[in-house]
Amino acid sequence: MSLLETLQKDMIAAMKAKDKEKLSTVRMLKSAATNEQINLGHDLTSDEEVAVLSRELKQRKDSLVEYEAADRPDTVAQLQNEIKVVESYMPTQLSSDEVKQIVAETITDVHAKGPSDFGKVMGAVMPKVKGQADGKLVNSTVKELLSN
Fold first, then answer.
1. What is the pTM for the complete model shown?
2. What residue ranges define each of the domains in the chain, with the CATH number in brackets?
């Protein structure tokens, strides 16, 4: 079942359950996925679906940081709920140990020697963990392992 089909089914379920918060988030996700499909001119592949979800999740996490800094608890609570909904559609996330293992293997594969090879390692790791790990976690893991 494609992401759009899943979102449509969940949108109907949220309407029936009168869950306004989930309904609005699912509608935003469906809109983002539909817009991406229109822009690309074809049905979304699973990688493209994950890219849309990752982008939406990142936007909400970035907004959450801003609203926390601005001391807006009402909006923070709403964003936290939206993040939970978006995360429910994301692929299973890798643990920090799994990310560390992938990064260590990649460092060996690309023959990275030190911090100067950071870009080369990140470029090789990110496609492997796309949608399965937070970029900040990968970034910090690469820096940690390259500095050792």
1. 0.76
2. 3-89 (1.10.1510.10), 96-147 (1.10.10.410)
